[in-house]
Amino acid sequence: MPGTPTPLCTALLIDGELVEGCGPAEPILNPATGETLVRIAEAGVEQVEAAIVAAQRAFAGWARTTPQQRAGVLLEIADALQRQQEQLARLEALNCGKPLHLARQDDLAAAIDVFRFFAGAVRCQTGQLAGEYLPGYTSLVRRDPLGVVASIAPWNYPIMMAAWKIAPALAAGNTLVFKPSEHTPLSILALAPALNALLPPGVLNIVCGGGESVGSHLVSHPAVRMVSLTGDIVTGQKILQAASRTLKRTHLELGGKAPVIVCDDADLEAVVAGVRAYGYYNAGQDCTAACRIYAQAGIHDRLVEELGAAVASLRFAGKRDADNEIGPLITPRQRDRVASFVERALGQPHIERVTGAAVHSGPGFYYQPTLLAGCRQHDEIVQREVFGPVVTVTRFEGLAQAVDWANDSEYGLASSVWTQNLDKAMQVANRLQYGCTWINSHFMLASEMPHGGLKRSGYGKDLSSDSLQDYSVVRHIMARHGEHLE
User: Fold this and answer.
1) Is the bond into 7 cis (omega within 30 degrees of 0)?
2) Separation between Cα atoms, residue 152 and residue 135, nearest integer Å
3) What is the pLDDT of residue 293?
4) What's the rounded mean pLDDT across residues 98-117?
5) At what angle do helices 109-121 and 67-83 cross, to 10 degrees?
6) Distance CA 105, CA 111 (A)
7) Would you list the DSSP string of 326-359?
8) Which of 305, 392, 285 is nearest to 345 (CA)?
9) Which residue among 211, 334, 362, 452 is least packed, with the fewest CB closer than 10 Å?
């Protein structure tokens, strides 16, 4: 496992200064061992206020920069990430418990690519043509930044989620106050000195702390024009209620329960490999995890047998980093929450434990990779987001039934369909009520393509040029002509 980088950065970034928080100090844990890595003082109320005021003051200057200038800064941030890639990957591995080799090849590589993508995307935006839509008047449409954006990130992909939120907001011309999860602030704090050197004071501020203290102050502040959150539905509802008082915009990604429809004619080997990888990646702590399988009757029994063996072979909690495929859950509370879901599910006589379904006996917050079969549509384990290494299998007969069941969910973020019949796949994909549907794959993301949900999974898009639109506002300017040409 990666050694602890020393010293760990604990300073917040407020108005171009690296300062220690003046609030309570909270322990930051290594989920793989349960050990305390460091204690970080959260921002006090006065510091949160100072960060917002700084962002508000910096907005006028940053908003007037050209796309070329902002793109140049984003490329420099990407280069800074590249230079610190090894350090930041080690911090992600320590702070999240995830295998170092995965943090290096996935999380950091994706974060770097996001900054580089938005550096290009902001320079080639398109819109409606200027012209005379009323006689005697010329109209043009501008797309302008919103102002101060409060970004609240989750703990499952700290540096990657920071990139998803910071890059498009800065590219669009906004200024930010960014709050990482109180569980996983180490990587963005380590990057803060480089960010501070590249950006004018106040353009990007980083404050640490909990949702009830720091987060609530950000959301309720009248100078904040938009709140961007990746989190759970309950947190999203609280933010919506608070944001409604000042009518600020919200950008919400609120979780998922991804259905995986496996048809009789699917490539079974590909399905097993795909679910083994993408149902359990990051210990299932992913909103798009392939966690809710609907298997057609003709392939169901073979799928359960082969997938069960594959899931049982997942490696974790090993001493050598390269031997580990998944990490622990983020906290003891999250591990116990996952365990309680499985315990209640196994209390149902029709649900079968295929493999796993137990807390790991060694150190750390690990839960065994779990596969449950015999699950029914209205079971809690099928309907609710577990956010852990747990996948369920439900048998279906007709494809229309599977589509109805897949759509019968409060979530609408991600889904997949597996079949060797492309016509069938496209028909199913067209009917699924999800922000993304993969065909014969799952979990693949590209910076050029939008990522976001429907229904209670939220609204607003991360990644892609659509994200730039979410972080900006359309304005119409109309000029009246003179009566005659001179």
Assistant:
1) yes
2) 47
3) 98
4) 97
5) 170
6) 11
7) S---SSHHHHHHHHHHHHHHHTSTT-EEEE--SB
8) 392
9) 362
Instruction: Supply the pTM of this predicted model.
Output: 0.96
Which tokens go with 377?
A: 């549509």
Q: ∠ at Cα 319 (317, 320), nearest 5°?
A: 110
Q: What are 269's two structure tokens?
A: 């080997």
Q: Which of the residues are catalytic? A: 253, 287
Write out the two tokens for 327.
């990490």
Positive or negative torsion for Cα 91, 92, 97, 100:
negative
Q: What is the pLDDT of residues 354-372, one digit of tens each?
A: 999 999 999 999 999 999 9
Phi and psi torsions of 51, nearest 5°: -65, -40
Q: Which helix (H) or strand (E) holds 369?
A: none
The 131-134 sheet, strands edge to edge = 131-134, 137-145, 472-480
Task: List, for residues 141-171, the tens digit of each pLDDT value.
Answer: 999 999 999 999 999 999 999 999 999 999 9
pLDDT for the residue numbered 6: 57
For range 169-195, the mean pLDDT = 98
- Give the tokens for residue 289: 């995890």
* Chain centroid, CA 64 distance in Å: 29
Length of the chain: 486
Over residues 126-148, mean pLDDT: 95
Section 264-286 average pLDDT: 98
**Cα separation of 383 and 214, whole Å?**
32
Structure tokens at 255: 């979780």
Burial of 287 (C-beta count, 10 Å sphere; 0-12/13-18/19+): buried
160 and 186 Cβ atoms separated by less than 8 Å: no
Q: Alpha-carbon distance 285 to 110, whole Å? A: 17
Residue pair 468/118 in contact by the 8 Å Cβ criterion: yes
Strands 224-230 and 249-253: parallel
C-alpha Rg value of the chain to the nearest Å:
24
Position 65 scores a pLDDT of 98
Rounded Cα distance between 289 and 275, Å, is: 9
Residue 484 has pLDDT above 80, yes or no: no
Q: Which of 411, 359, 355, 354 is nearest to 382 (CA)?
A: 411
Say which DSSP state 451 is in.
B
CA trace torsion 241, 178, 288, 351 (10° rounding):
-60
Pairing type for strands 458-459 and 249-253 reads antiparallel
CB 72 within 8 A of CB 213: no
Consecutive H or E run containing 13: strand 12-14
278: which 2 tokens?
A: 């993408």
Is residue 161 a contact partner of residue 43, using CB atoms and an 8 Å limit? no
Place of tokens 């690519």: 113
